[in-house]
Amino acid sequence: MIRQYELIERIRAYDPNADEPLINRAYVYAMIQHGNQVRASGDPYFSHPLEVAGLLADIRLDSASIITALLHDTVEDTDATLADIRRMFGSEVARLVDGVTKLSRIESRSAHTRQAENLRKLVLAMSEDIRVLLVKLADRLHNMRTLHFISGEDKKRRIAAETLDIYVPLAERIGMQDWKEDLEDRAFAVLQPGARANIVQRLELLDREGGSQVGGIIATLIRTLEQASLETEVTGRRKRPHSIWTKMQRKDVSLEQVSDIMAFRVVVASAMQCYEALGHLHAAFRAVPEQFKDYISNPKENGYRSLHTVLIGPDGHRIEVQIRSHEMHEFAENGAAAHWLYKQEGGGKDGRQYKWVQQFLDILENASSPEEFLSHTKMQLFPDQVFCFTPKGDLKALPAGATLVDFAYEIHSEVGDRCIGGRVNGRQVPLRTELSNGDRVEIATANSLRVTPEWDRFVVTGKARAHIRRHTRLQRREEFIKLGRQLLDTEMRDAGHAWRERQLVAPAADRALDSPESLLAAIGDGRITAREVVRALYPEAPLDADSETVVSIERARRRRGDRPGPLLIRGLIPGLATHFARCCHPIPGDRIVGIITTGKGVTVHTDECLTLESFSHTPERWIELDWDDEPGRDRPGHVGRIRLTAANKPGTLAHVASLIAGCQANISNLKFVNRQTDFFDILIDVEVNDTRHLSDIMAALSARPEIASVKRAKR
After folding, report:
1. Is residue 150 exposed (0-12), middle (13-18) or buried (19+ Cβ within 10 Å)?
2. Which pLDDT tens digit goes with each residue over 214-245?
3. Which residues touch 354 (CB under 8 Å, ≥6 apart)?
4. Is 629 helix (H, G, I), strand (E, B) or coil?
5. What's 240's DSSP letter?
6. Average pLDDT of every residue of the chain
7. Between the CA of residue 585 and those of 557, 591, 622, 694, what are the distances in Å?
8. Could you tell me if 399 and 359 are in contact, meaning their C-beta atoms sit under 8 angstroms apart?
9. Full DSSP string of 461-472
10. How many whole angstroms separate alpha carbon 343 and alpha carbon 13?
């Protein structure tokens, strides 16, 4: 355990103006408050905040951060209060301690909710002061270093998984490379102990067999650069097990095939000399194609700058070389923390100045729940990136796999909401197009919102997904309100009542809903039936069963009689959330019935669909539907499913495709369900106008001699 004078000496070594009396007071106060508390290791509990303070001193943080580290568990685990902290150590320290304490309290909740709330609180706290994140990272690092003392394996795995998912990417974003590698390797040891043990064993063998090779490679690199009159510092270090494991997984190779296990670092005086050193090394050694990365002209999002290249070095060994200036090296080693906090007078502490923190705040604002925020933010934390340019030359960093829609939201949320298309390197491309490094991207926008739920299927950034889902929720709510109003209006009319929306205030309040519109939306998405609301408003006047708009399974399968026209989902309510069931693939011409599905709107089935049996006990969810039978109306795009048995010989599928195309139809999907030497069975999804169109296609197929049978598939 660090002694009091040792901590002070370490702080004064980089900050002669540190508030030594206040630090000493915090040291004594925390030690007294924690008293006889002990950790799982059996050590005095005070050893933990002291070690956290030591970690922050290693990266040269200011006095307030060191004091916060010493006090960060006092409010949570002792009888100390924030008022006490504020009175004894000032408002700045109290605010920092409060930020870290709120995060620690959340960690005691259930796994998923706790993690989501934890990250949400962390984003809010670090947006106010980035030092909260630094203290939290140091706290997590020391906890990971002592994780082996915890007895419960499930708890250890939960903490390790959370560390790998959240704290490792955050450490990388803030430039704390050493902390990041330490955290991920310790989490790796808990989550994949066997894999890590194998890698460590292999690395130890390589050390015994080729330890002298490292010194030889360093000497060769120094000699090559000295001949070019460059003063350099060259060091070599072995990659950590998790880094090696990640490369094995990414490239799908074995440990023996990972050749660049050692990384060599070349430090020169300036950025210009970095490129000069790169030129001399590429002239002296063969460079591995497509293994060069320029993080000087295109820095990482956390500010990291360096040149990375892979060379075929002495004796044919493949070696990775990083070239950077002294300033870049200091940043890479210690993160931005020291520069932000103790070198910038009064600045650098507001987390909102960092773009990635602002992105998280934007996700938080648009997410509907802490859990949704967690999933979107995890996507945003993915480290793999592509760098693209706007038409003005501004650089945008995006996760690998990002599309034009992700790029549009990266520019601005309004650009994303209104984007209708785009060009990549001057060529018009679909919005789902994945971007590559160096692409020049131009986004076309409309004057109104153009967000569609389809975008959610291909975007990868948390910011884009949060905005899309927010708009989708709002659009779907409007659809449900329209459907709910239509259902209630029909039910009221059949019961002989007129109604006004203000009448719904009381029924909405009785069901803990905040407005009549919320009640209508609940009717529309199936959570409440229109009949319930009518009975709530007119309990003394029961409805006539003959006028019910809900139907039983028998009524749904009966032909229509003289009753009023059916509820036309298509046409009456444009844009309504309507889905065609994949179990029966209804198409115009089929007799159909609608099932209100919570959260999805209306799902349309054929009235002979076997799936309807499962809804026989909930007739209130049924709606009679019909097709819009305007004469001559063309209805392309409906999917009919055919089951076909045909001879297994060359050309059969070609004839099938040609016949379907000749009938002016398109195959949307094809699946083999049985294949033997003589015959095969396939399911074909065909886009048709109606049942007559599908029948014509089936008749044409049946006429072919190589086709044994054709029938419409029920599932």
Report:
1. middle
2. 788 888 999 999 998 898 999 988 788 888 88
3. 130
4. coil
5. P
6. 80
7. 17, 12, 18, 12
8. no
9. -HHHHHHHHHHH
10. 14
Torsion of CA 401, 403, 408, 409, to 10 degrees: -50
- Give the whole-number percent of the chain exceeding pLDDT 70: 79
Burial 202-236 (b: 16+ CB within 10 A, else e): bbeeeeeeeeebbeebbebbeebbeeeebebebeb
> Which residues have C-beta within 8 Å of that of residue 452, sequence separation ≥ 6?
none
In degrees and rounded to multiples of 5, residue 396 shows phi and psi of -125, 125
| Neighbour-count burial for 359-391, b at 16+ CB within 10 Å, e otherwise | bbebbbebbeebebbbebbebbbeeebbbbeee
Question: Which of 239, 253, 254, 241 lies closest to 188 in space, CA to CA?
Answer: 241
Catalytic residue among 58, 76, 181, 681: 76
| Per-residue model confidence as pLDDT tens digits over 195-215 | 888 888 877 777 776 555 778
d(CA 301, CA 356): 8
**20-34 vs 63-71: helix crossing angle, rounded to 10:** 10
394-425 pLDDT, tens digit each:
778 788 889 999 999 989 989 999 998 889 98
DSSP-derived secondary structure for 493-539: HHHT----GGGGHHHHHHTT-SSHHHHHHHHHTTSS-HHHHHHHH-T
User: CB neighbours of 373 closer than 8 A, spacing ≥ 6?
Assistant: 116, 119, 120, 363, 364, 367, 466
| Residue 531 phi, psi dihedral angles, 5° rounding | -60, -40
Name 457's Cβ contacts closer than 8 Å, sequence gap at least 6. none
| d(C-alpha 131, C-alpha 54), whole Å | 15
Phi first, then psi: give them for residue 574, nearest 5 degrees.
Answer: -60, 140
- 484, HSE (Cβ side, Cα atoms, 13 Å): 28
Enter the DSSP assignment of 167: I
Looking at the DSSP bridge assignments, the partners of residue 322 are 265, 308
Q: Which of 129, 183, 169, 191 is nearest to 462 (CA)?
A: 169
Residues contacting 675, CB < 8 A, separation 6+: 648, 681
**Residue pair 203/258 in contact by the 8 Å Cβ criterion:** no
Q: Does 654 score more than 50 pLDDT? A: yes
The residue whose two tokens read 């795995």 is 157
Q: How far apart are CA 481 and CA 477, in angstroms?
A: 6
Residue type, 513: L
- For 476, residues 6+ apart whose C-beta sits below 8 A from its C-beta are 577, 601
**Residue 156 pLDDT > 60, yes or no?**
yes
Query: For this structure, is 77 an active site residue?
Result: yes
Q: Which of 58, 77, 371, 696 is catalytic?
A: 77
Task: Give me the half-sphere count of Cα atoms (radius 13 Å) on the Cβ side of residue 53.
Answer: 30
